[in-house]
Amino acid sequence: MLAFTPDAVRASEPPDLEARIAAAERAATISMPTPEAEIWRYSRIAELHLENYRPGHAITTIDAGGADAAVSVVHGGALAERFVTADAVDLFHELNNAFADTVVVSVRAGQAVSRPIVITHRLDAAGIACFPRLIIDAAPDSEITVVETFVSADGVDALCIPRLEVNAAQAARVRYLGVNMLGTSTWQLAHQRAVGERDSNTLLATVALGGDYARVRTEARITGQGGSTRQIALYYADGDQMHDFRTMQDHDAPKTTSDLLFKGAVQDRARSVYTGLIKIRKAAKGSVAFQTNRNLTLSEGAWAESVPNLDIETNEVKCSHASTVGPIDEEQRFYLESRGIRPEIAERLVVLGFFDEVLDQLPVGTLAAELRAQVSAKLQRRTP
Amino acid sequence: MSVLQIVDLHASVSGKKILNGITLAVSSGEVHAVMGPNGAGKSTLAAVLMGRPGYEVISGSVTLDGVDMLSLPAWQRAQAGLHLVMQYPSEVPGVSLDHVMEQALIERGRSTEGLDQVLESEAARIGFSSELLHRALNVDLSGGEKKRNETLQLAVLRPSIAILDELDSGLDIDALRDCASRVEALTNETGLGALVITHYNRLLEALPPDVIHVLVKGRIVATGGPELADELERSGYEAYAVDEPGPASSSALDDLFAH
Q: What pTM value is reported for the model?
């Protein structure tokens, strides 16, 4: 018997009770996804036992970064439904609708928020499932940077099902960075969806270092001419961790641009999956899309899968995709060793250099040094 | 005073015998050229001396000042004073030249104080843009910039013996002159000994050798003074029973491309 029932929604006494109960009722009719579905292929979804969890909350702190952005914490199902489209409604989507703790960040037209807004979700109780929902609503010609970090201690067997909705209105600039620093017993099933209007510019960045099984599904859709999106990620799994990414670059207007750079490493017995789709719809003439996924396998027992895809429905577009999976390049290592640098340090330089390309592009430069140190510490723990 | 001593060196690559008994010695301050046609084993010699993975030494010895190089991994050979200027230096994304030089000095237990100034002045000396000092190694560099970069590293690390593996390949005439004259100066300044592996005379005009070895089919078939290069220029490798085109025709082609 699952704990995610309409009664559980009632017990939490949210203001938008009716919508949430309806979502919980819909959730009850949807079965658990299985790895047979393409979007869950290679995943560890079959290992998830929802009956072991009950609805709960992360402890969320917000550093609102100054007075020039409006940040509100709302338990608002109605708000949360604002950007939902008909496709891809799954069990976790409906559970999030029913149990979400929602944070809304909105920026007025023409406003540029100078300091990043930093949101931290901490999971400290085993057995809970939490559903953070973040809505970033950027009005025309506004600018905002948001960093959202997920934290739990090692050993906390919890479930984090976050959802991100970004709406970048005409000419808005939105930069988002999600950082997974979850403990090695916590699961994450994240879903990000950004919609960019005319001439908007959206960055969705992810750094994944933590979690037991941590999945991010990230979709960047451009609906207005001249809009652009960029998706970047750094992921690094060790021990028995698994990182799982499903990306979509969805072009639905002329002269739109999308770029994606995902770089990951796996070591020990860790695994990673990247599957990505560039979709150029009929309306997207003159669009440009790039997709690059590079993976380092740093131990014999580690495994990475990379599946890039293109789906192009119109002419006059420029698309490219590249994907690699392999160990540290022997030529690079030899080159550094021939300068008198020990193999372990040479490898270290190569791996840190590999990730620097992504770290250098993160929207919050000050975080890069801390993240680089975390990456470095992971590398130290490696068994080849 | 250092000596790199190679004695009766035999080596193979993926089961194929390439070096069939090489013997030569390079001392501090000397420039030795190893010339030979394509496929003679020139680059294999460079790779084996530095310990590149994938090459198997069958017999023979290589010592630097009496220390057995063949039993050491590449990084220890480098620390012992051997250096390889690569024909095709690898691109290493995200790893900057200055950082690698700093690390290389630390690994040798040498001071990194004043390294920035050394890098700047070495860059200026060989016409290497100082912006590139802080950029990832060889990434997006032209052929000429890569060789200037290699030469700069040689000057910063100051090894006792350097192997120059076709320093001249892909190099325009200005870059060739800058790189060759820097190596030449190092033979005087630091007593660098150089084993210069090349196909063409062009490099040796800018970096005059004391000794020339002719390498054919994995063997040194002739050793002599600078006059040997002129002789090869005139009559090619035919005298050594080689079917491939000699350096005379190659350097004619080379001249064509240089203009």
A: 0.89
